[in-house]
Amino acid sequence: MIRILISLACLSFLAACGSTQLNEAPENMGAFSARVIHVYTDKAKQWPLSRSAEPSQWNAPMENAMETRLRRYEGGQEYDVAVSLEGYMLAPPGIPVVVNPKSVAVVNVFVYDVATETFLAKKEQMEIFEDTTGQSVILGSGHSRTKEEQIAGLSLNIADTIEEWMAKQHAENGWFNKRAGPALAAE
Fold it and tell me: CA 164, CA 29: separation in Å to the nearest integer?
């Protein structure tokens, strides 16, 4: 029994250390600069067993997280990013230690290159889970967080996941490589 308690304490400490933060170091995003960031939540479906929440309650937290994460890049080439919340489940209170449901959201992501008028990504679907904290590892987030805190945490994870995915696409596929400027006219 003592080993189990020590293991749970260590697990909760490690989980709390790995939480996503709003002000994490920027990724390598090349010449990326956000022109417009759209967040759509109107048609989001609340899944069974979820805590009750209106799709409109996601607007401000998602917009804040996306703006904070993507507006810090000033690469000089403009891109539009749209995120559509498709569905969500906010973890209800479970049975501590035995059943600890995690909140989850599904989003579709669109990335549009303004200069070339082409989509780099059209409807890339992502499933994002909430972080586990020291409290939620034992009690579950339904006991340790309000629905507003769950939405804010998931919104931050959505922005973080999208930012990391975009950086990976840039590294692997050159999404935001600097384009050659127009040639100067000979005098």
Answer: 9
Pairing of strands 77-89, 104-113: antiparallel
DSSP 46-103: EPTTPPP--GGGGHHHHHHHHHHHHTT-B-SEEEEEEEEEEEEEPPPP-BTTTB----
Q: Which of 170, 172, 168 is nearest to 30 (CA)?
A: 170
Cα distance between residue 132 and residue 103, in whole Å: 10
Return d(Cα 147, Cα 144) in angstroms, integer. 10
Q: What is the model's pTM? A: 0.80
Successive 10-residue mean pLDDT values, the chain, 187 residues? 43 45 81 97 93 94 96 96 97 63 92 97 95 50 76 95 97 94 47
SS3 28: coil
Query: How many angstroms separate the Cα of 169 from the Cα of each of 87, 91, 114, 162, 165?
Result: 25, 31, 17, 10, 6
* Single-letter residue type at 170: H
Q: What are phi and psi of 40, to 5 degrees?
A: -115, 130
What spatial distance separates the first Cα and last Cα of the chain, rounded to whole Å? 84
Q: Which amino acid is at 173?
A: N
